Amino acid sequence: MSVDGWNTVLVLGGIRSGKSEFAESLVADAPTVRYVATAADAPADDAEWAARLAAHRERRPETWTTEETAADPRRLADVLASAGPNETLLVDDLGGWVTVLLDPAHQPADDTATIAELAAAVRSCAARLVLVSPEVGLSLVPTTPLGRAFTDALGAANRAVADACDAVVLVVAGQAAWLKPGATHPATVPAQPRPAQAGAAQAGAAQAGRAQIGAPGVPGGAGSSGGAGGSVAASEPSPDVSTPTPPPAPDAVPGAEPTGTAWAAPTMALPMVATGLVIQPGMELPMPDEYAGPQAIERLATLDVPGSGLGVLERAVGFAAATQGTVTPAPWGRVRVLLLHGDHLGDAAAGTVEGESARRARQTRAGQGALARLAAESSAELQVVEVPSSAPMETEPTLTGEQVEVALRYGWRLAEEAADAGVRLLVLGACGAGTEAAAAAVLVATAGAEAPAVLRRVVTDSGEIDDAAWMRRCAAVRDALHRTRNSPRSAKDVLAELGGGDVAVATGVLLGATARRLPVMLDGPVGVAAAMVTRDLAGQARHWCLLADHGGHPAVQLGADVLGLTPLLDLRLDLGEGANALAALPLLRSVLALAAALPAHPSLGGGEDDEPDTAPDTDEPDFREPEPAGPGPTSTEPEFREPEPAGPGPTSTEADLREPGGAGPDTEAVDPSGRRAG
Asked: Which of 19, 24, 107, 20 has its CA nearest to residue 61?
């Protein structure tokens, strides 16, 4: 199974039950959808049927593509069999397909064999697939031979396809009940929008079309001496999401409280719970587009730039293209930072000041500190997540098995909520005492590292190196590995014995983000350790991870080498987890905006400038600031004469603050002849 616990699903329902709208809501979060239309075109004298088809077409977003299979009923099986793992298909509906199958134009035909071929194609389909079909058998037996043949064939098709699908949903009067696998709560079909609203409504349709089931929470307190508390009730809302306001101007009153901070606390649906998905090794989650990334990098070589290109930042364009499924990826607009806060007890936290991590978390919530300020500059959301405190690894497991399950599902839920809210990039960071030692222990267990090699020196608040604390941390990792020398090294065992709450929740975040095709920027050892653990659960997760800078951290460097993640930058930033990524984010956004906006070089087929080659006869070029009063240049002046003094143009400050990709004509450079510098 794949995203949300299923890879293929059959949506059944009666006439006007809302089955098509529900099916469309299931794929509304997909970047692209291939809509497979099975019904034949309406006859010229059937205006009512033509209106139905038109309503379906108007409801589809512009990003969807449509494929017709009415000409040959066997072609539907071929389409499903040839679909790739990165595609999303919506087939609407099997009733139209059966109508074509029984059409005399396609006879003689073996209906039973054709239905069996379709079921086999559904069972082997690698794409995410949603099929819609009318439910039959709840009304009187038709009185005509053709009507009975239709109901018999459609019933047989529904049974065969339902058996081949991972999940089956029955929609009755706008209410969806999951039949396979069973769900305890039905979902409500979203109201059908007017045609003018259909495109905008698709973004939020996935939330409305899924079962509204609460997810287990995460132990939230600082913990007792035993290290871990109980789990939060299923109905407890997720942590608040804040959008920090920019820092006050330099002449503002020192210490003034920031104002205007917007808060929201979304509690989204959790489809993985609704469908009974169990997080276990070997899950089949989606991969990025294997073709879009290389094609985007090849396209960069054709752009009209005076230099040799973007250098190592080409990898950022390739990553964005693969995760967005397009050769011209857009800059990440809505970004959310997940800051996981949870302490590790015992010598893993040797050398840290008691309560320091809690102070950092409070500071971030209040919109203060490096992370909140950088988030404000980048217009990024912040979500501080309290995770279970972890028992001393050197003497006992950091978490129980049940707490690991809760933490994994909680992290998945956080990623689901971000995707449903329209987030396009997650930044994963952590703050807590002992996090580096826990991450080091995970790397020792999963990559065969040595603790002294992946634990960096301990620096006190006064800037002094505390070698005694560093040795205690190394000893804690050594003793933990010795204690678990006979324990299995599965993903959940590593999290329970060594990783603790923050690494477990981070692992769930990476899995949930992968399931929703949401890229994640890692920042620090906790995220890298979580990525190492995901290899056993879903190897696809690492392909959705981006590492901006290793920060000079030995654990991050080793983990990145094992995972195949090459840092984009070598700035060795050490501003705290999450803040390092946000510091690099504006540069990455600028690179994506540039790569998407620049045309191809004219020698490679790019368009020429709009302006003529010679100076226009008008007094001023089109995009020049007006000159002071007085006679302007005449048409007899030389073509490349220096321009007359002009009024003040855009300042460097204005250019720097412009949103990426939002440059307009008034910001383009113009040479003296009035042409754009391009």
From this structure: 24
The torsion angles phi and psi of 377, rounded to 5 degrees, stand at -65, -35
Spatial distance between the Cα atoms of 457 and 459, rounded to a whole number of angstroms: 6
- 26, 347, 582 from 430: Cα distances, Å: 32, 19, 14
Nearest to 532 by CA among 494, 563, 493: 563
Do 500 and 413 contact (CB within 8 A), yes or no? no
Give 102's DSSP letter: T
Longest dimension (CA), the chain: 91
Nearest to 443 by CA among 524, 327, 357, 329: 524
- How is residue 666 written in tokens? 């008034």
The CA-atom distances, in angstroms, between 312 and each of 2, 289, 567, 571, 592 are 33, 20, 9, 13, 13
pLDDT in tens, 399-446: 998 999 999 999 999 999 999 999 999 999 998 898 999 999 998 898
Q: Are 211 and 26 in contact (CB under 8 A)?
A: no
| Residue 499 half-sphere exposure toward CB, CA atoms < 13 A | 37
| Torsion on CA atoms 243, 244, 246, 248, rounded to nearest 10 | 150
pLDDT tens, 357-381? 888 888 888 888 888 899 989 889 9
Question: 167-172 and 175-180: which strand pairing?
Answer: antiparallel
Q: Which residues contact 17 (CB under 8 A, 6 or more apart)?
A: 171, 172, 173, 174, 189
Give which of 428, 431, 450, 452 is closest to 349, Cα–Cα: 431
Distance of CA 402 to the CA centre of its chain: 27
Question: CA dist 531 to 385, 513, 540, 594, 674, Å?
Answer: 19, 12, 10, 30, 52
Measure the CA–CA gap between 512 and 408, rounded to whole angstroms. Answer: 9
Q: Which of 320, 279, 232 lies closest to 536 in space, CA to CA?
A: 279
Q: Give the pTM.
A: 0.56
Calculate the alpha carbon distances from 144 to 110, 149, 150, 623 in Å: 21, 9, 10, 74
Concatenate the DSSP letters of all residues of 435-459 into one string: HHHHHHHHHHHHH---HHHHPPPPB
Catalytic residues: 577
Distance in angstroms (rounded) separating the CA atoms of residues 281 and 260: 45
